[in-house]
Amino acid sequence: MITEEYLSTPDALAVQPFPAATSADVTGSSGPGHHVRELLAGRDFREEDDDGQTWVEAEAELRACLDDLAAHLTTRWGDAFDVDLGPYLRAGCEGEIVPEPLDHLSQQAVSMQVWPLPDGGRRLALTIGQADKELPLVLSAAVGRFSAFDVTVSSRS
């Protein structure tokens, strides 16, 4: 199921230099200490009125892709750990500064799988999220400096 295209993006992000300034385009964003890229997007849900069945099917398709990609990455880099993004979303809503890419990801997804990369200074995350209920579900990859993926906030209740 996973094509080289899906594997090549995390590989490229893992070694790509981080820019000095934040930039964004239709495929994602980058900034000091992070990159976020859209790997796969479903269709939007603007015209749907099917009791959520289309959403369930779209999520299952992206989940299968994420699981397959995660299996390949686990073979390379070892087991991932799961991160609950809820505490980051709450912190941002309460006015706290949440580092990127955690701020962006927490506004679209509820959790992510994270792998420490072999260089020791970066982490890679995969997640499925949706910016708005009418927009497509998106499978995203994010790479950040170890400090950009500071997951200590996740220990909050």
From TrEMBL:
Name by which UniProt lists this protein: Uncharacterized protein
Organism, as annotated: Kitasatospora paranensis
